[in-house]
Amino acid sequence: MGNNLQVWLVAFAVVLIFFYGLDHLIMNMQGLPLNIDLTPSQ
Predict the structure, then answer these.
(1) pLDDT for the residue 14
(2) What pLDDT score does 21 carry?
(3) What span, in angstroms and rounded, lies between the C-alpha atoms of 28 and 24?
(4) Mind spelling out the 3-state secondary structure of 1-42?
(5) Is residue 23 a contact partner of residue 35, using CB atoms and an 8 Å limit?
(6) Exposure letters 1-39 (e unless 16+ CB within 10 A, then b)
């Protein structure tokens, strides 16, 4: 049971890191700097 929870947490972390990286890459291609909360800085 505990092992199953660990697998879910790892998968969730991987997805978060993947989408953060994807967003960072897209914003970089558009030349927009990123704040840590994924909003474009003014």
Answers:
(1) 96
(2) 87
(3) 6
(4) CHHHHHHHHHHHHHHHHHHHHHHHHHHHHCCCCECCCCCECC
(5) no
(6) eeeeeeeeeeeeeeeeeeeeeeeeeeeeeeeeeeeeeee
Query: Which residues in the chain come in under a pLDDT of 50?
Result: none
* pLDDT score of 38: 58
Backbone angle region of 3, left / alpha / beta, with phi > 0 → left and psi within -120 to 50 → alpha: alpha
Tokens of 24: 């960072």
Q: Are 34 and 27 in contact (CB under 8 A)?
A: yes
Tokens of 21: 């990286």
